[in-house]
UniProtKB/TrEMBL annotation:
Protein name as annotated: Phosphoribosylamine--glycine ligase
Membership in a protein family: Belongs to the GARS family.
EC main group: ligase
Keywords, alphabetical: ATP-binding, Ligase, Manganese, Metal-binding, Nucleotide-binding, Purine biosynthesis
Gene3D superfamilies xrefs: 3.40.50.20, ATP-grasp fold, A domain, ATP-grasp fold, B domain, Phosphoribosylglycinamide synthetase, C-terminal domain
Gene expressing this chain: purD
NCBIfam families: purD (TIGR00877)
Organism listed in the record: Cylindrospermum stagnale PCC 7417
Cofactor requirements of the protein: Mn(2+); Mg(2+)
Known EC number: 6.3.4.13
């Protein structure tokens, strides 16, 4: 079968890489793809925008595509699944109504409250003065969120009232575009964040391995929030007992409530959790797609063929599938970012050392890259590469990722040198 993957990040490179490991997959077409997908055998990039639904449909039909896998949240929120399904194509990813789980934090919060899903107390505002009054009444620390899609950067954990008010002003003054039409203000939860990605056909929902991301740009989890600077799986803090509760109290309740709203949700349901020191948890947010960079550590550990799981979701027969099989061990990814990220950064810097990193045992997933006219990989985004290591334990996986990233160079390159510090400290 032929598969079309929509997107151009590290997540999409990982999806294409995993799919192409199967003998069932004849070819993967990536729209638009990146320098990594352009370099794989049986993989082709086509230069279309992720929201060019008509163009993607024409390409899929012309190439005899059996399945479309949508990576990013933006085309899902704009209704790519609805459009492609209307053209007779099979799509993995929720319809537009379901994608509101990520596209509107206010909508998702209301659904969680209706479903009885544990989540932070919150209020929604449409103008700055009322939001600031609420913040003054509640006090700091407090969390200020742009309601809509903001590429993982629309959340401020404000330690002071001044920071909260500044974040409110930035959102309402258009820093995040239409994502700032509403502001969601939440209580500040203390603990560790864990990403639980689950696959669902709208009736059955099965979690993948829990992962722990490192959102802050700086070591020791300091500085600005990013799309993720590194991640590992499976996260030990998400014990089997906790995952059993997440299954019943979060995942199954979410899918059931979506059904009561008439939404047939098929794809990934991604719950971002905060686990308190006492072991209790609350949902910070939902996402409607594979996580990035979580996908880059989950898929290397997946033993069940990915296409089998995806097809079971799309065809609503996930409940008939055997339990998801895993390879065991651990995986870790370190993100190599452009200098200046998550703020302004330059593009077009030549990247060297990728082959050497892979020869050292790491798997390098391209994120913000493209090939120049000399077929060299050059930087084309904030998060440039995801260097992934695997091993029998976290020490081996993390060591392999860092052994690989030492070979990689480009002007202005930055990466955190403490990815996995929590799990490593458990062993000391």
């Amino acid at each position: 079968m032929k598969v079309l993957v929509v997107g151009n990040g590290g997540r999409e490179h990982a999806l294409a890489w995993k799919l192409l490991q199967s003998q069932q997959i004849e070819q993967v077409i990536c729209v638009p793809g990146n320098g990594g997908t352009a370099s794989m055998e049986r993989c082709q990039n086509l230069p279309l925008a992720v929201d060019d639904f008509e163009g993607i449909s024409q390409v899929a039909l012309a190439h005899g595509i059996s399945l479309v896998v949508v990576g990013p949240e933006v085309p899902l929120a704009k209704g790519i699944t609805d459009y492609l399904q209307s053209q007779g194509l099979m799509v993995f990813g929720p319809v537009r109504a379901g994608a509101l789980l990520e596209a509107s934090k206010a909508w998702a919060k209301a659904l969680m409250q209706e479903a009885g899903i544990p989540t932070a107390r919150a209020a929604v505002f449409t103008e700055a003065a009322a939001a600031k009054s609420y913040v003054k009444a509640m006090g700091a620390p407090i969390v200020v969120k742009a309601d809509g899609l903001a590429a993982g950067k629309g959340v401020t954990v404000a330690e002071t009232l001044a920071q909260a008010e500044s974040a409110i002003d930035a959102i309402f003054q258009g820093q995040f575009g239409s994502a700032g039409n509403f502001v969601v203000i939440e209580e500040c939860l203390i603990g560790q964040e864990v990403s639980v990605l689950a696959l669902t056909d709208g009736l059955t929902i099965r979690p993948l391995l829990p992962a722990q991301d490192h959102k802050r740009i700086g070591e020791g989890d300091t500085g600005e929030n990013t799309g993720g600077m590194g991640v590992y799986a499976p996260a030990p803090i998400a014990t089997p007992e906790l995952m059993a509760r997440v299954q019943t109290e979060v995942l199954e309740r979410a899918i059931a409530t979506l059904r009561t709203r008439g939404i047939d949700y098929r794809g990934v349901l991604y719950a971002g959790l905060m686990i308190a020191p006492n072991g209790e948890f609350k949902v910070l947010e939902f996402n409607c797609r594979f996580g990035d960079p979580e996908t880059q550590v989950i898929l290397p550990l997946l033993a069940t063929p990915l296409e089998d799981l995806i097809l079971a979701c799309v065809q609503q027969r996930l409940g008939e599938m055997p339990p998801i099989a895993w390879k065991g061990g651990a995986a870790a990814t370190v993100v190599a970012a452009s200098g200046g990220y998550p703020g302004e950064y330059e593009k077009g810097k030549v990247i060297t050392g990728i082959k050497e990193a892979e020869a050292a045992g790491a798997t390098v997933f391209h994120a913000g890259t493209k090939l120049n006219q000399q077929h060299q990989a050059v930087t084309d985004g904030g998060r440039v590469l995801n260097v992934t290591g695997t091993g029998e334990n976290f020490e081996q996986a993390i060591a392999q990722a860092y052994a690989g990233i030492k070979y990689i160079q480009f002007e202005g390159m930055y990466y955190r040198r403490d990815i996995g510090y929590r799990v490593l400290s458990l062993k000391s």
